[in-house]
Amino acid sequence: MRRLPLLLVGVIVLVSAGQCSAQILHKKKKVDKSTDASNTAEPDKQLYDKAISDIKHGKHEVGRLGLQTLINTYPDSEYLAKAKLAIADSYFKEGGTANITQAIAGYKDFIVFFPFLPEAAYAQMQVAMANYNEMAKADRDNTHARAAEEEFQTFLTKYPKDPLAPQAQQRLREVQEIIADGQYRIAYYYYLKGDKRAAAGRLIPLTKRYPLYSKSDTALWMLGDIFEKSERKDIAGSYYGQIVRNYPLSSHAPDAKAKLKAFNMPIPQPDAKAAAWMTAEQNAPRPKETVVHRSFGMLHSGPDVHAAALSGVPTMEGESDTDAGTDILKGGGRATLVGGTAGSTGTPSSGVVATVKPGEAAPAGTPAGATGSEDVNSAGSGTPESANTPPASGGTDASTPTDSSSSSSATTPAATDGTATSTDATKTDGSQTTQTPATTDDKNQKESSSKKKGLKKILPW
User: Fold this and answer.
1) CA torsion, ordered 78, 84, 90, 96, to nearest 10 deg
2) 329 by DSSP, 3-state: which?
3) Most buried among 43, 115, 244, 461, by the most CB within 10 A?
4) pLDDT in tens, 300-356
């Protein structure tokens, strides 16, 4: 009993000694700050890493300030290009109208200074996506949609084999769907209102430029109806023929065949590639819209792109290039005949359709006045009075005198100094000579001659 306290004391001493030895063995080693990698790194790398860390944690302004310090202090740094791109990315991620503008400017700056770096393709894609994200609905301002279309076309032209090319191509289809839908809505309004000229001025460039648009077949049907009611069955038949040939699975195809049969025109065979494209579009999986989404769709600020095509080659030419007299469109591997260039039968005799440009004679079999019909209002302005210049072969208007000296009774045009020169009319009694004031007939004739060109040649309304 007397030895028990001594044993307990001994056990306690041994346990405490073991704990001390364990602490000594597992004691953390001191870090030598002189060999730390963060301190041995170059100062430009330290600035870059610190700025990137700030941006990741939401401190965009602080991060951009650090990156700008890096650019100004170390102009020859290997992180210069990365810093410029990171600044643009920071503006893009932060969002907002002002920041998106700064991001676009930063990306374009990067492309100018570093065009051969692999990141240049990413910068071009970001420029297009910045405009894509700012797009409004189809019935609103399409400034960003037009800019996005141009930027996506630039990306696909410069970097066709980039890994981002498929994504850019699909985004381009969606952008063109929104632009075309905006034009279609305006044309449909004029169509219901009965303004044939305004409706045709929108529908002709729409069907010519955007064959992948989800309602292109309906637009062609409207054009055929417009020209049919205007007693131009030859041109109407060409539009009906396009529906049968290039949109064979359309709901308007049976009615278009009936129209061609009533016009005694041959019914074209459906294009195999067009049928395959429409089949793929109908079978493609699309996100289903719920009732709630449809109900609150009007509250969304962004456009609805669920109806955009998922396959096919989108239009790659600029708007001015497409509307400069080109009669062949290639969408989804399909050749589309533009109405008015196919002749009286309304269908092309071969797979190649002649291109008629201003100043050239129309090919054989072209209906009268149809040569310049497709170039009218090619910009989609809806004002046929500002049409493109028609071919020189039929450019002389009957209301415009061909020679100033052909008629002695014609009124002399006003002089360049502003003083009107007119013919002196002397009375029969010779007592008084009156001076006839200059009339505005010549001016009205010149204005009417310019207005009668273009759609006025083929549209009798």
Assistant:
1) 180
2) strand
3) 244
4) 667 888 889 999 999 998 776 445 433 333 334 343 333 443 333 333 333 333 333
DSSP H or E stretch at residue 334: strand 334-337
- The b/e string for 248-271 (b: 16+ C-beta within 10 A; e otherwise) is bebebbeebbebbeebebebbebb
CA–CA separation, 218 and 200 (whole Å): 13
Using only C-alpha atoms, the chain has a radius of gyration, in whole angstroms, of 36
> Where are the chain's structural domains?
195-283+310-388
Question: Are 314 and 173 contacting, i.e. CB atoms less than 8 angstroms apart?
Answer: yes
Contact 106, 118 (CB under 8 A): no
The count of other CB atoms within 10 Å of the CB of residue 125 is 22
Please compute the mean of the pLDDT values over residues 188-194 and round it to a whole number.
94
Dihedral angle, C-alpha 154, 172, 248, 287, nearest 10 °: 160
Whole-angstrom Cα distance, residue 359 to residue 423? 38
pLDDT at 12 over 50: yes
Please tell me which residue, 61 or 372, carries the higher pLDDT value: 61
Q: What is the rounded CA–CA span in Å between residue 302 and residue 361?
A: 46
Tokens, residue 364: 């054989």
Rounded Cα gap, residues 272 and 456, in angstroms: 36
Question: One-letter amino acid identity for 7?
Answer: L
Tell me if 123 sits within 8 A of 111, measured CB to CB.
yes
Query: What confidence score (pLDDT) does residue 8 get?
Result: 64
What DSSP letter does each residue of 392-428 carry, written as one string? Answer: GGG---TTS-S-TTS-TTSPPPPPTTS-----EEE-T
Name the 3-class secondary structure at 330. Answer: strand
Position 164: which residue type? L
pLDDT of 408: 37
Would you say 375 and 269 are in contact if contact means Cβ atoms under 8 Å apart?
no
- β-bridge pairing 334-337 and 424-426: unpaired
H or E segment to which residue 281 belongs: helix 272-283
Residue of 394, 417, 410, 408 whose CA lies nearest to 445: 410
Q: Tokens 């399409």 appear where? A: 142
**Helix, strand, coil tally for the chain in percent (to 5):** 55, 5, 45
